[in-house]
Design brief:
The chain is of the alpha/beta class. The protein contains eleven helices and 17 strands.
């Protein structure tokens, strides 16, 4: 018995020694430390989406992690990033566009730490080896959400089942944060999804000039409803617009979160888990992180939620059909034959892909493949550069 116990103790000592040599019994991942910097907190649907994905990825990969919230797009972002670097963190990620210059500053000062940033535009031109951008082709998800919205309009107003509704019944509203390409690309793809179902759809866009202002987003949604909009969507980060829709019994297409008992149709979102897992794998294995990473429906980064109670019958089947075409590339969201700009179809458009202080238009982003001419969004860089105002959409500042 004594020999058996001694043998068992010896085996345990050998196993413990091997684990200590690796850093952990899980393969040494606890030696990697990751940090997340968020513009807002859990009450922001945008930031919560990042936080949840970051936790999931870090726990799956077995790395030590932390995150901080309510970090403004100011010098405090650099201070926090630098502090994480000083504490021995291996990778630091920031989630808001305005964080970018401060993350780039930290990357230049701490070359042995990886600094990753969402929605940015500078990594592919700055050539700083430890600074990376990432985003996703969320326009694919918004297009699908638009299809669901169009089907809902038909369910409500196409009483004779002829596939058409009156102009006043085809007016929709959109709560936008800022008149930036990211927002314009999103609301345009949503609108084109609606128009693929309701050909005479029109849309009114109103801006809050804030990414997160629940009172302003609710007030803006109510103003759109009062101005005759029959369905509301949004690119803003609070529950303001969905709350307004629930109060007025107006169908709502949300962003990042499924919400609303009676009026919720669908939401689109970026699933950041695939990127965070990829980022952490690179750090763990000592590999380079892509300078400018783009998520898609095909790689699992672009998602739509389960349908809400307000979704029209047959919506899921239609979305499955469209999603398959988006994944294989046979359907182009920004097919130039499907929209006009001041009455004309685009044949060329110079976008500011290589962003500089003057937002210089430097790259023709109109391509033709298999007989289809389209605006090629999120290919030349991950962050959106579709900033065109197409016919059928009215902006109100």
């Amino acid at each position: 018995m004594f020999k058996k116990i001694a043998s068992l103790v010896l085996a345990l000592v050998m196993i413990l020694g091997a684990c200590l040599a690796l850093g952990s019994c899980g393969g040494g991942n606890d030696t990697v430390k990751a940090a997340l910097i968020c513009l807002h907190g859990d009450s922001s649907t945008y930031d919560k989406n990042f936080i949840d994905a970051f936790k999931t990825a870090c726990e799956k990969k077995g790395v030590e992690y932390t995150y901080i919230t309510d970090i403004d797009e100011k010098t405090i972002c650099y201070d926090k990033a630098a502090d994480f670097a000083d504490q021995g963190y291996d990778v630091v990620f920031a989630d808001s566009f305005g964080h970018e210059p401060f993350m780039l500053q930290a990357a230049k000062e701490f070359p042995n730490v990886q600094f990753c940033h969402a929605t940015g535009t500078m990594a592919h031109t700055e050539n700083v080896s430890n600074f990376q951008n990432s985003f996703a082709s969320i326009y694919q998800g918004r297009y699908l959400a638009g299809v669901a919205a169009g089907l809902k309009l038909l369910e409500l107003y196409d009483t004779d089942n002829d596939g058409a509704i009156a102009d006043e019944e085809a007016k929709i509203g959109y709560v936008g944060a800022w008149p930036y390409a990211e927002v314009v690309s999103g609301y345009t793809s949503f609108f084109l999804g609606v128009r693929s179902v309701v050909a005479n759809a029109t849309m009114e866009v109103r801006y809050t000039n804030s990414w997160y202002d629940e009172a302003a987003e609710k007030t803006t949604a109510l103003a759109l409803i009062d101005n005759g909009c029959k369905l509301i969507s949004q690119h803003a980060d609070s529950m303001g617009a969905p709350t307004a829709c629930e109060e007025r019994n107006i169908p709502n297409v949300a962003y990042n979160v499924a919400t609303g008992k009676n009026t919720f149709v669908i939401a689109s979102r970026i699933d950041w888990v695939p990127y965070f897992e990829y980022m952490l794998d690179c750090v763990i294995n000592g590999k380079d992180i892509d300078t400018d990473w783009t998520g898609t429906l095909a790689n699992g980064a672009v998602k739509i939620t389960a349908l809400g109670a307000a979704a029209a019958e047959g919506t899921q089947e239609k979305l499955d059909e469209i999603a398959a075409k988006l994944k294989d590339g046979s359907l182009k969201v920004f097919d130039c034959s499907k929209f006009t700009v001041k009455g004309d179809h685009l044949t060329e458009y110079m976008a500011d892909v290589d962003t500089d202080a003057g937002f210089t238009a430097d790259t023709n982003v109109i391509k033709t493949e298999n007989g289809v001419t389209f605006f090629d969004e999120s290919t030349f860089r991950s962050a959106p550069y579709f900033d065109i105002r197409i016919d059928g959409i009215t902006e109100v500042q």
